[in-house]
Amino acid sequence: MTRLPEGGDRVDRSRPVTVTFDGVVYPALAGDTLASALLANGVRAVARGIYTGRPRGVYGIGAEEPNAFVQVESGTGEPMVPATLVEAYDGLCARPLAGKGRLPGAPDTARYDHKNIHCEVLVIGGGADGLRLAAKAAERGDRVIVCEAGPVLDAPALAGHDDVLLLNRTTVVGLYDHGYVVAVERRTDHLPEAPDTVARQRLWHIRAKRVEDTTGAPEFPYAFPDNDRPGVMLAGAAARYVTQYAVRPGRVAVVASGSDRALRAALVLADAGAELAAVLDTRREVPDDLAAELGRRGVEVRMGHAVCGTDAGADGAVVAAHVAPVDGHGLVRGAVETVPCDLVATSAGWGPPSGSGRRVGTPDGASTTVGVPSVIRVPGDHGEAARRTFVDLNRDATLADVERAVRVGMTHPEHVKRYTTIGTGADQGRTANPVMLGVLAELTGRPAASLEPTTARPPAVPVSFALLAGRDRGRFADPERVTPMHPWHVAHGLPFEDVGQWKRPWYAPLDDEDMDDAVRRECRAVRTGVGMMDASTLGKIELQGRDVGVFLDRIYTSLFSTLQVGRVKYGVMCHADGMVFDDGTTARLAEDRWLMSTTTGNAAAVLDWLEEWLFTEWPELDVRCTSVTDHWATVAIAGPRSRDVVAALAPDLDLDPEAFPFMTFREATVAGLPARVFRISFSGELAYEVNVSAWYGMALWEAVLEAGKPYEITVYGTETMHVLRAEKGFPIVGQDTDGTVTPQDLGMSWAVSKRKSFVGKRSYARPDNLRDDRKHLVGLLADGDRVVAEGAQLVASPGGVPPVPMAGHVTSSYWSTALERPFALALLERGTERHGERLYAVDDGEAIAVTVTAPVCYDPEGARRDG
């Protein structure tokens, strides 16, 4: 192994660099890969087998590399990447791996970008063929993108074409339908560009009218005992190290060929000064011109010969090859000769990516049979030798593994893949697949051409999760949605609860209050005075069209089409299985305009649900749905003094209960702002929800605060909202339901029409929905001062021998200021029949006695609703 004094079309001899591998510093050249730099410095063992721990060397030159996986430790680091794809740069530091990498301990601070682009022609590969296609397309006026995995793409023929984008260091990792392509551009901080302005990597999303793949056909080997030792590599790769990096990967070489191109690789090695100890070919004849060229170099091609084993030195690397004549099935049929060498360059042929077992045209116009012979065997030495004949170097899978798979009935390539793990490594079996197919064909007596390769899935080469995430990481991993009043909440130190993507004020502490104290104070204010809450996050969907009423009748369990303009109605919607999906109120704004509210976390799902039914089942309905959640800011004003506050804000609005009854809305001017005011209560108290354009949300909030000062108005958050609604027995979909709860289970039979059809109604007749032991929503009053844990199981007795029958579970649990005791909601078997019964709530080994009650624990008559 040595660096040649001249040549190497990818390296820049004027720019020397140093790299560190396994603690040792080595000289290299700009343009080197880590693999070529290590070969130039005589480093033979660069990794170890994932299971065997046997030393492994560089085997390929690109993405097909199965052995030389390293951990990059310089910069932000990168686990488990092929050394053949790591560009050498000054300060590069890496270490060898034994099949698996180590995630960095610190967060990756590098920048990763995503970019979307369109073109008429995408050319994959910047070789002569690719550049020729790109030039023709550019001359036609097409937008052209050329992706080249190498660091330098010299294309003078494309100069002057403004619509041509040349992407160096860019690997296509995914080809999808309709011309969609994903590519990774490595733009690391060692490049000449300023590191603070250049992303470490960029993920390109490309839409191309036409995709031209000019990367050529990959080379594949044949297998033989001890074929995993450092010094064994692909013949084509060995030649390309000479031509591209001016690196001779061995001093004395044995070239084991099965194709014309492998013989040409032997010529390249010879011209680079390598001694050709033997040139072998499994075929019975080769082209005269190649034989003549090798003959002029004093080399005779041994026809019908192959390598059938290797010997290793103290470092585990090759020191000799075993050479013997073989028949057409790879079986040794003569004396075995030992040939001293430090490089065994093998090639069984060239073919489609991952191999297919078919006869295919190779890039040089020659033809070869893929996968035959796939394995070289020595008679009488099969058992142990099969365990040292590696089919998949990346996974340490052997010939013995394939044979075992066939013995147990795994005869399909996909079954063999899963039984043996062949092809499941980071290289996806690029070199292993053809060998496995050939072995499988031989063992099952089927033609190799009848076997399809296993499915290779994108990404074609390993891609980091950091790159896939791009800038969507940390707090940007998921969009943060905030209300117009958010700056006020932040300025006043309100903690937030994440509900879906929304930041909702959780509670509003004063001074050093903890959450319990703040919530109790907030609850008292709403029950005895007045409180205000930012309710802007509730989902809001506007529906327009002449058939909205008909549509809502089908979606909701109750009748909506008869609702009068200006009225509001509560509704429940179910999935097709009859289980509760969401609930909320819908107001009729005009004859053909309605406004639906949903739970905060379910707004997008509800909109999707509505559109699914409209588009797939009832396209004849004149209904259009639009999300307007972000268009409106909402302030809920609740409590006995809420009417006084609203009166101060909207002096022209008649707030008399007769003029403005419950479940109605009015258009009004509130604090000088055009608004919709709803008489809706989620607390059981007299309450109003004031909606204004989101632009005026902060102005409304501050106006409500000012108008409420005489009444000591109190800001409250979601935790207090939950306590207040639970005291009134109002369930929260997703907390008090779990996808197995019907409206009837929640005690909402009154909300289910018996006269009309709707989504889910037919499922109510299912035997499971008619069981008399279904779980029903109930209330629980706990003994003592301990709040029962949510999720606690309800049992008849805290003792007994396991398994103890579970009768239900706690869904919501709080301390009630109004009741001055802990209470809870629960789903309990036959719950409506068990009011007054004593049970135990068990959590983490602790049992608390509880009494079953109706779900409504506070003001069951609803006397407080109208003030």
Structure description:
This protein is an alpha+beta fold. The protein is built from 17 helices and 48 strands. Strand 9, helix 2 and strand 10 form a beta-alpha-beta unit. Helix 3 packs across helix 4, helix 12 crosses helix 17 and helix 15 crosses helix 16. The chain starts with a strand and ends in a 14-residue tail after the last strand. About 3% of the residues have low confidence.
Mean pLDDT: 92
In which range does the helix fraction lie? 10-25%
- Spatial order of the strands in the main sheet? 11-10-9-14-13-12
Summed up, the helix count is 17
Share in β-strands: 25-35%
Distance between the termini: 92 Å
Structural class: alpha+beta
Q: Which parts are unreliable, with pLDDT below 50 for 5 consecutive residues or more? A: 192-197, 354-372
Instruction: Summarize the biggest pleated sheet.
Output: 6 strands, mixed
Summarize the structure.
With 867 residues, the chain is an alpha+beta fold.
What order do the helices and strands come in, and which of them pair?
Blueprint (H helix, E strand, L loop, with lengths): L1 E2 L8 E10 L2 E7 L3 H7 L6 E2 L6 E2 L12 E4 L5 E5 L9 E5 L15 E13 L3 H12 L4 E4 L16 E4 L2 E6 L4 E7 L14 E13 L5 E2 L11 E3 H11 L1 E2 L3 E6 L2 H12 L3 E7 L6 H9 L4 E3 L1 E8 L5 E8 L11 E4 L2 E4 L2 E2 L8 E3 L5 E3 L13 H5 L2 E3 L4 E2 H9 L5 H8 L11 H13 L20 H5 L16 H6 L4 E4 L2 E4 L9 H14 L2 E4 L4 E6 L3 H8 L12 E7 L5 E11 L2 E6 L4 H14 L7 E4 L4 E7 L3 H8 L15 E6 L2 E6 L8 E7 L3 H12 L5 E2 L2 H10 L47 E8 L10 E3 L12 E9 L4 E9 L8 E6 L2 E8 L14
Parallel strand pairs: 2-8, 9-10, 9-14, 10-11, 16-24, 18-19, 18-24, 19-20, 32-42
Antiparallel strand pairs: 1-17, 2-3, 4-5, 6-7, 6-8, 12-13, 13-14, 15-25, 21-22, 22-23, 26-27, 28-29, 30-31, 32-38, 33-36, 33-37, 34-35, 35-36, 38-41, 39-40, 40-41, 43-46, 43-48, 44-45, 44-47, 45-46, 47-48
Helix pairs in contact: 3-4, 7-8, 7-9, 12-17, 15-16
